[in-house]
Amino acid sequence: MARQRSRITGAKEMEQVLKRLPDQLAKKHLRAAVRAGAVVVSKEAKASAPRGQEPAGEYGRLHENISIKLNRKSRLSVHFMVHNGAAFWGLFLEFGTRLMAAIPWFRPAFERSAPAALDKIGDRLGKGLEKEATALAGRYKDLNKSRRRALAR
Q1: In terms of residue numbers, what domain contains 18?
Q2: pTM (whole model) above 0.85
């Protein structure tokens, strides 16, 4: 299957906060956020995968094989793949062959779900960072809002 990559640019403040957090905490929340985005793409890919009337066969049906996998060999800090598992014919459907026209299903699903996936990543990362910032705040954690504002001045 062809590789589709998405890159989040901008969000300088988020990047600075991640750099300040201990590496393990930053990676933990980044991994959870990126996986949440991959789940959104995976669900859309399963919904748009072509379904035939034939029995499942040795390799199962295409939509049943779509899953998410963490690539631990990646040079990137966190790299999840949404792939079609043992259903190798998904590639033939997506790009076609010399005997069959292409029936794109994954690329359109990715394009439809990408904005929602990016929103999910941002939300999840924000919540994780907020949680860690609250834990790191120590004595400010239990203070009410007006008291924190007074101390911040």
Answers
A1: 12-152
A2: no
Residue 7 is assigned to a structural domain of this protein: no
* Alpha-helical segments (H) within the chain: 12-20, 23-48, 62-65, 89-95, 106-137, 145-152
CB of 106 closer than 8 Å to CB of 85: no
| Residues making up the chain, counted from first to last | 153
Phi then psi dihedrals of residue 67, to 5 deg: -150, 175
For the segment 78-97, what is each residue's pLDDT rounded down to a tens digit?
A: 778 888 888 888 888 899 99
How many whole angstroms separate alpha carbon 150 and alpha carbon 153? 6
Asked if residue 2 belongs to a domain, the reply is: no
> How many structural domains comprise the chain?
1
Cα–Cα distance, 30 to 18 (Å, whole number): 9
